UniProtKB/TrEMBL annotation:
This is (2Fe-2S)-binding protein. Residues 418-504 form the Rieske domain. PROSITE patterns: RIESKE. Gene3D superfamilies: D-Amino Acid Oxidase, subunit A, domain 2, FAD/NAD(P)-binding domain, Rieske [2Fe-2S] iron-sulphur domain.
C-alpha cells in the first residue's frame, strides 16, 4: 500500500541539510565528540564556550539521526515515571531527577536566547492523560508522586482534545521546539580557532590512551585528551550498554490543522495504544499537528505499515486532518529508567558516554551536555552520581530478564527462518530471509523486479536481521542496528554494513 504524505521527518524536510566536510587528515583537539545529535551538539557547545577546542564527528549529517526524528517535546513530565522512580530509586533520587529535567529546560532556553536562535521554541503545558479507569488510577499515582517531589503538577479533569478523557496530570511551563533548526544553529558556532565539525565520517572505535585516539573508517585519526561517545546507542560495546537497555521504534504522522481547532498544549496518553500529540508552527504560517505512538521493540514487527495506518486513522477520525508527513524514530530504554551519562567504564579515564534516554531524549540530551562538560572540565556536577554510566544496573528485573531472554531467543531461533526459501520466492516489494548455499541471506526485490541480497547476519553481535516493510529496511531485533535494503548502515550500534551476498 502507498501511504499518503511524505515519508520524511518534518524537522529535516523543513530545513536545508548541513554541508560540513569529511575528515581527510589527522587533527588534534582537546575533546572529540562522536555523534552530532542534540547531546553531542550541546556538549560540544558548552565545552567550546569554556575554552576547549572540540571536534564534532558525525557519520551522516548534523541532527539527522534520532534527534531529527523526535516529537521534540522538552519536559520533566514524561508520561508515567515518578511513581516508578520513587519505588525503584527512592525519594531523593527521584526528586533530583525531576529537578534536573526542569533545569535542563531552563538551560536550553538560555542557549536559544543567548545565541538568538530561531527554532520555534515555545513554552507549553504538558499533559499525561488517561481515557479509562485503569489509566486514571495510574494518573493519580503519578500526580501524588510528582507532587511529593516538589514538581508543580496539578490534576485536571479534561483537556482540549477531541477525546473522552478520564483525567490528566498537567505540568506548566514546559517546552517544544524545532530540533533541527536548533542543532544546525549551534553547530555553525563551533568551527574555527582550533575546533571542527566533520560529517560523513564514521568512527570505528576509540582508544582510551593519553591522548585518546578516535579511529575513523575514512582513515585519518582525531587525537584528543577526552572523547565523548554520544551516538545513542554507544558504538563501543565496552560497558555493555546494549545489554542494559533495549531498542524501541515508534511512529509519527502529521497533517496541517486550522489554528482555531488545534490543541494548545503537549499531550501523551497512558495504556495500550497511547498517543503523543503536539503542534508545530510551519514557516508558511500554518500549524502541523503531530501524532505519535505505536511503539514496539526493534525488529519484532514486519507489518509496520499497519502502525502508520492506525495513526493516520486517528488523525482523520479525531481531528479531520489528512496526513502530510510520516516518519519513525528509535531510542534505547534503560532498565532502571535513568540515562547512562559519564565515564564509559571504571577503567576508562578519558572516554565518556551518553545513552539510554528512554524516549525523552530532548531533555536528557541537555542534561548530558551539562554533566559531561563539567566532568571534562574537572568540576563535579550535582547530577553526576544519579546518572553515572558505571552504576550497578539491575539485570534481574522483570523487564531486563524478559528483554535479554528475548535477545537469546532471536539469536538462536531466527537462524531457522527461511531454511527452505530461495530468492525465487521473493516477490516485488517484499523483503525475506532465504537460504543460499547454506548461508542466511536477506533478500529484497524492488518494484522494478531487481533483487538486492546481503548477509542476514548483523555484524554487531551476529543476530539475524528482520525485514521492516514500512521503512524498507533490515532491522536487528537484538540490539537495534538497522540497515538499508542494500545493507548500508541506518542506525548504530553497528559500525559495519551488512556484507554483500551474490545469489547467482
Amino acid at each position: 500500500m502507498t501511504r499518503p504524505g511524505r515519508h520524511v521527518s518534518y524537522w529535516i524536510d523543513s530545513t536545508l541539510p548541513s554541508t560540513y566536510p569529511a575528515l581527510n587528515q589527522d587533527v588534534t583537539v582537546d575533546v572529540a565528540i562522536v555523534g552530532a545529535g542534540l547531546a553531542g551538539v550541546i556538549t560540544a557547545k558548552l565545552l567550546k564556550q569554556a575554552g576547549k577546542t572540540v571536534a564534532l564527528i558525525e557519520a551522516d549529517r548534523i541532527g539527522q539521526g534520532t534527534s531529527g526524528h523526535t516529537t521534540a517535546k522538552v519536559s520533566a513530565l514524561q508520561q508515567l515515571i515518578y511513581a516508578d522512580l520513587v519505588a525503584q530509586h527512592g525519594t531523593e533520587k527521584a526528586r533530583l531527577y525531576g529537578a534536573s529535567n526542569q533545569a535542563a529546560i531552563a538551560r536550553l532556553a538560555e542557549l536559544i536566547a543567548a545565541e538568538n536562535i530561531d527554532c520555534d521554541f515555545e513554552r507549553k503545558a504538558n499533559y499525561t492523560f488517561a481515557t479509562d479507569q485503569a489509566g486514571l488510577e495510574q494518573i493519580k499515582d503519578e500526580l501524588e508522586a510528582a507532587q511529593s517531589l516538589g514538581l508543580p503538577v496539578t490534576f485536571v479533569e479534561s483537556v482540549d482534545l477531541p477525546l473522552s478523557v478520564t483525567g490528566a496530570v498537567m505540568l506548566p511551563d514546559q517546552a517544544q521546539f524545532h530540533p533541527h533548526k536548533f542543532m544546525l544553529a549551534i553547530a555553525a558556532t563551533l568551527p574555527g580557532n582550533g575546533s571542527y565539525v566533520f560529517e560523513q565520517t564514521r568512527v570505528n572505535t576509540v582508544k582510551d590512551e593519553d591522548p585518546c585516539r578516535v579511529i575513523t573508517q575514512n582513515g585519518p585519526t582525531v587525537i584528543a585528551q577526552d572523547v565523548v561517545v554520544a551516538t545513542n546507542p554507544s558504538i563501543l560495546d565496552i560497558g555493555l550498554f546494549f545489554a542494559k537497555s533495549y531498542p524501541q521504534r515508534s511512529y509519527l504522522v502529521g497533517g496541517h490543522i486550522d489554528a482555531n481547532r488545534a490543541p494548545q498544549g503537549m499531550y501523551i496518553g497512558v495504556g495500550e495504544g497511547y498517543r503523543s500529540i503536539r503542534t508545530a508552527p510551519t514557516d508558511d504560517g500554518r500549524l502541523l499537528l503531530l501524532v505519535g505512538g505505536e511503539g514496539h521493540k526493534v525488529g519484532q514487527d514486519n507489518a509496520t505499515d499497519e502502525r502508520y495506518q492506525r495513526l493516520e486513522d486517528f488523525l482523520r477520525h479525531h481531528f479531520g486532518v489528512e496526513p502530510a508527513y510520516r516518519w519513525s524514530s528509535q531510542d534505547y530504554k534503560s532498565f532502571d529508567q535513568l540515562p547512562y551519562i559519564g565515564k564509559l567504564t571504571l577503567a576508562h579515564q578519558h572516554t565518556y558516554v551518553a545513552t539510554g534516554f528512554s524516549l525523552w531524549g530532548m531533555t536528557k540530551s541537555v542534561i548530558a551536555g551539562m554533566v559531561l562538560s563539567d566532568a571534562i572540565l574537572g568540576q563535579k556536577h550535582p547530577w553526576a552520581d544519579l546518572y553515572d554510566a558505571t552504576r550497578p544496573t539491575p539485570l534481574v528485573t522483570k523487564t531486563s530478564v524478559q528483554q535479554n531472554l528475548d535477545v537469546g531467543s532471536h539469536w538462536v531461533g531466527d537462524r531457522f527462518k527461511g531454511l527452505f526459501d530461495s530468492t525465487d520466492s521473493v516477490t516485488s516489494g517484499e523483503g525475506k530471509l532465504v537460504t543460499h548455499k547454506g548461508a542466511k541471506v536477506a533478500a529484497y526485490r524492488d518494484d522494478n523486479g531487481q533483487l538486492h541480497t546481503v548477509s542476514a547476519v548483523c555484524p554487531h553481535l551476529g543476530c539475524i536481521v528482520a525485514w521492516n516493510q514500512a521503512e524498507k529496511s533490515w532491522d536487528c531485533p537484538c540490539h537495534g542496528s538497522r540497515f538499508s535494503c542494500d545493507g548500508q548502515i541506518l542506525h548504530s550500534p553497528t559500525v559495519k554494513p551488512l556484507a554483500q551476498k551474490a545469489c547467482n
